[in-house]
Amino acid sequence: xxxxxxxxxxxxxxxxxxxxxxxxxxxxxxxxxxxxxxxxxxxxxxxxxxxxxxxxxxxxxxxxxxxxxxxxxxxx
Length: 76
Description:
Layout: H1 2-11, E1 22-25, E2 28-35, E3 39-45, E4 54-58, H2 59-68, E5 72-75
Antiparallel strand pairs: 1-2, 1-5, 2-3, 3-4
């Protein structure tokens, strides 16, 4: 049981997600709008964030998506 907990903590980034972070994935921007204990609210848009729906997912799922798509942190 101890090994699972240690392995899980190793995957989480040290500073984690913060409100206001902007990630660049190709021509798409991802803006973190709210961070909870286990979930993150974010917006994805191509040019302007006007009228874009907020999406909700777990921190681990968003971290995996960002690493798989080789996202670059623009502002943090």
